[in-house]
Design brief:
Helix content: 25-40%
Distance between the termini: 35 Å
Shape: globular
Largest sheet: 7 strands, mixed
Number of helices: 14
Strand order of the largest sheet: 4-5-1-6-8-2-9
Strand content: 15-25%
CATH class: Alpha Beta
Length: 434
């Protein structure tokens, strides 16, 4: 079968209309969800773009491939899903926000279609507007309408280029892996004006925050919150409206590529995967963006549509590292021995959970001051360690919004220590090649 992977950036797990989110206008992704296996408890290996994308590409945890921040370089000998499919003579297309740091590195793909390629097609006034929207303060703390049209975002360009390459492969009777990484809805939260103005900001419900009786999060989180302390409620709503406008925008770009599969008559011979690198806090915990281990950042959507496999919803804990071996099994490729994920094919159906399936998910990042931040998340608890010291503990059954940090609560002391040991065992068992 062909393989089409569609990725968005900063797209929250719950930013889908089919999940009942009134702000998410996502008809194309909803349609894909209706014919997919939806993994409702999928977790990113890092709430940071480059580490998360390298884990998807390699099937390795972040400390195993070596990229723990956006400027990190992987350990030598990077093996990607494109390398795994190359012996089967697949065409291997990569477009958009792949986040490779070295453009000369062998990623297993054909030449990378980049943002620089998009920029070359845009008039100066569009690039000037994009530069204004992308200024650091504007991009991180504001939202609003853009003067750009739908056709003047990089997502439109990448969707068009992907369709061209898919069409070329079909005309030559070639199988393909096409990985399209859209930047949207990544900030700046400035969608086209006609999209932004359709969002009724008065109907945006702001998230619940911690109360006076709740224990505060780690100091690292309190430092992050300072960036948005100055925002008024109006400004917060503007950012949220801009975000959901960008969600609607990228849903259209995903729809362009999905529609092309139908137009080319290959929908029934193409595996489609849709996921994201991480989410966005959208004012949960008085935060925007990511760089933390809250559910808004590390809990990610994952849809896998396979011809002949009926739609289903699975609640098992799955991870981004599982995408690589899943694709290999679906197309009959040999999965490299070092891959640390496990194929999701046994979950594709309505049968019971396979014996021995994982009971915890893990994530890892480096903080702004160089802190090693790691998460272990079971079905009912989450513990976050900072440089090996427990800093946050949330009882997800009692406190699903993660408002009350119980790390210092004597009632949870044994559980905190147990989860810390689980984290150390995981880190040691999956150590990289440095």
């Amino acid at each position: 079968m062909n393989v089409l992977v569609l990725m968005c950036d900063h797209h929250r797990y719950d930013a889908l209309g089919c999940l009942g989110n009134p702000l998410a206008n996502t008809p194309n992704l909803d349609r894909l969800a209706s014919r997919s296996v939806r993994f409702q408890n999928c977790f990113a290996q890092s709430p940071v773009c480059s580490p998360a994308r390298h884990s998807l590409a390699t099937g390795l945890y972040a400390h195993a491939h070596g990229v723990l921040g956006n400027r990190g370089m992987p350990f030598p000998g990077l093996v990607t899903i494109a390398h795994a499919l190359r012996p089967l003579n697949y065409r291997r297309f990569q477009l958009g926000h792949m986040h490779w740091r070295d453009s000369e590195m062998d990623t297993g793909y054909e030449p990378w279609i980049t943002h620089e390629d998009w920029r070359k097609t845009m008039p100066r006034e569009v690039l000037d507007r994009f530069a204004w929207e992308s200024q650091n303060t504007t991009r991180r703390t504001t939202g609003g309408p853009s003067t750009r049209t739908r056709e003047q975002y990089s997502g439109y360009y990448f969707a068009q280029r992907a369709i061209e390459r898919i069409r070329s492969a079909v005309e030559r009777n070639e199988r393909f892996l096409c990985w399209v990484a859209f930047t949207e809805p990544h900030p700046p939260f400035y969608p086209p004006r006609e999209i932004y103005e359709k969002i009724d900001q008065s109907r945006i419900e702001l998230p619940e925050q911690s109360g006076p009786g709740d224990h505060p999060p780690h100091d690292y989180i309190l430092r992050l919150e300072r960036e948005w302390k100055h925002l008024t409620e109006v400004e917060i709503r503007q950012m949220i409206a801009g975000y959901y406008g960008m969600v609607r925008l990228v849903d259209g770009y995903c729809g362009m590529v999905l529609d092309a599969l139908d137009e080319l008559g290959i929908r029934d011979e193409t595996v489609v995967v849709w996921t994201v690198d991480h989410g966005d806090q959208l004012w949960e915990h008085e935060l925007f963006l990511k760089f933390n281990m809250y559910e808004g950042s590390v809990h990610v959507p994952l849809l896998v549509s396979v011809p002949g496999i009926p739609p289903a919803i699975r609640s098992e804990l799955v991870e981004h590292v599982d995408v690589f071996p899943t694709i290999c099994e679906l197309v009959g490729a040999e999965c490299p021995a070092g891959v640390q994920g496990r194929s999701l094919v046994p979950l594709m159906g309505r049968g019971p959970t396979p014996r021995g399936w994982r009971d915890a998910a893990f994530s890892h990042m480096v903080g702004s001051a160089g802190e090693q931040i790691q998460m272990v998340r079971t079905r009912s608890e989450k513990m976050v360690a900072y440089d090996g010291v427990p800093g946050e503990m949330y009882d997800l059954e009692e406190d699903p919004k993660e408002l009350n940090n119980r790390v210092a609560d004597p009632e949870y002391a044994v559980l905190v220590q147990t989860l810390l040991e689980r984290l150390k065992e995981w880190e040691e068992a999956n150590r990289g090649k440095a």
